[in-house]
Amino acid sequence: MLVLWVGVTLLLLVNTRKIRFMKDLSSQLAEAPAIAVIIAVKDEEAEIEEALQSVCGLQYPNFRIIVVNDRSTDGTAAILQRMAANDPRITVITIDELPGGWLGKNHALYKGYCASTEEWLLFTDADVKFAPHALQKAINYVQQKNLDHLTALAEITSPSPLFVAVMNVFALMLDIKLKPWTIADPQSSASMGVGAFNLVKRAAYEKAGTHVMISLRPDDDLKLGERIKRAGGRQDVLYGEKEISLAWYNNLSAFVNGLMKNMYSVYNYRPLLALGTALVTFLILALPVPLLLMAGAPYCCFALAIVACQLALMIGKKGIHAKWWHALMIPFAGLVMVYIIIKSTILTERQGGIYWRNSFYSLRELRKQG
User: Fold this and answer.
1) Radius of gyration over alpha carbons of the chain, in Å?
2) Residue range(s) of every CATH 3.90.550.10 domain in the chain
3) pTM for this model (two decimals)
4) Which is it for the CA torsion 224, 108, 355, 257, positive or negative?
5) pLDDT tens digits along 150-173
6) CA angle 146, 191, 148 (to 5 degrees)
7) Which of 70, 97, 162, 286 is the most buried (most CB within 10 A)?
8) Domain at 18-160+178-248: CATH code
9) What CA–CA distances, in Å, run from 234 to 141, 142, 187, 225?
């Protein structure tokens, strides 16, 4: 286990250095292709105004904003109407009824695409905030690298120190699973997509089949990246610190409940794969340090060496802002992730499907897009 942790530490410390920060990129544009910023919104009155103001504040010279209001029942519609009246770049599309075979967000993003004609599409969420030059830097980067799809990892903010600690461990798990430093390699099968920032060329999005092909995927952002890569699109990823931010969850309980509804989809609704991942997570993250410490000397030395690796990761890994004590939370965070995976799997199998925004989707139809 110590050898494994040494290997993981070196793998992440070395390879995440290959991923660039968006904040370090130039905002000087050779050309400014037209961009449609597409935002799906449902009952977002607490967040949408501030987030949309940040989008309106983007200094990019050639973009418009398509906000798709998907059956909101709170004050969202009034906020959007007022903001659209004050900024001609904002187009609001209202959806009153969800057609069969769609999750609401996926359908809303697709309708936003249908209302656009721009060369580039930026799919983002209703609670994401942008720095003024973020879009210029992103377009400059895709032009330099000749990309079809760019993902940026938003800076996560939260008032809960416990959630932030668990989130940093979750980020490590994603790095190990997705290997984002290999995404730019056309020979690699690795792909990525993030709901906060999916900038994709229209032609590549259409070649990948649009959201029609992932209409029932709760993990639509990841699946969109996967389909674009499979279709031959050139991808890359950036760290969005200081340029793109997201107040994701206010506490650990909200994080657990939020992941519960879509975690099983990551494993394509295959119970053995999900439960196997839970077991591996338990054996690698949750078990080693407590077990070795309880075993006493000389095993405590191995436990301390593993903790040293984990400290090095939390302090030295690029792309996260972790405290040293977050390393001590790794066994607890491992148990949290195991709980989410197992409960999501059992709950979905027991129900025979998932409830998403008050609609039920059977496992039979969900697995068709696995």
Assistant:
1) 21
2) 18-160+178-248
3) 0.94
4) positive
5) 999 999 989 999 999 999 999 999
6) 25
7) 70
8) 3.90.550.10
9) 12, 9, 10, 10
